[in-house]
Amino acid sequence: MASIAQAGRLRERRLEVQATRDRAFLRAFLERDRLLAAYAICDLDEREFARTRWAVAVDGSEPIAVALEYNGIAPQPLFVMGDADGVAAVLRELIRPRAAYIAALPQHLQRVELLYRIEPGPPMVRMWVDRASFMPMPGSVQRLLPADIGDLNRLYNLGFPSWLPSEAIGQGVYYGIRAGGRLVAAAGTHVVSPDARLAVVGNVMTHREHRSRGYAKVTTSAVTQELLRHADQVVLNVRADNPPALATYRALGYREHVRFEERLIHRRGMLWDSILSPLRRLLPATHKEV
Question: Cα–Cα 20 to 30 A to 127, which of 16, 151, 189, 228?
Fold first, then answer.
């Protein structure tokens, strides 16, 4: 009944869904909340834009929601922003990935759940810093080069599945710390936009044997300091249930902007979902929502 009511409201509002490649329009819409939309704004740069697909929901002549689907083997990132009815319309009619990692505000998930099965997970915190608030942390770090990609991937594979090409270092900013010749900590970037003067820090990792020594703070500081030479704001994401990481970034001057959801979603009605759904009803729950 809920889905019928939602569909009726969408028809009553006469929402129209359109694909778009108009970067000027998209930039203007996303700049309504520059920090929330930082990844998407960076994806408007020429290097990333060819790998993206965009759609907008329009109410009369007013654009009310935007969705970005990053192309590639599923699941890929999916970002939605704007009016919840508009988000639902776009995901129902035009942007329809089988599986995706969605980034959305909590109020969007109720509508998304009509179309997708949503995996559990903790809220995320979007944090940001600028030159006025940044508090650098000095330390002995080195700028990583494309030749260091093997060491970097070995470090990341200790904590989470990862494989980065050497271009990721060449096109981004990475700093690391070595102990006994071995790379034991690193921080880098997800995406950097010279056009928007925005950058996103990510891939922060310390080897388990070298944690609690401030290495994450020092490497993140070095990356942030370099990025702020050309960016007006630098953002990052951190899990809301990770107090040590939150404290680390706050110590560098990062401030909380918004809490949002970053979840793995699967389109309802797909073959895999129809196979798994009966099994889920038979198995006891093994997780709890945070």
Answer: 151
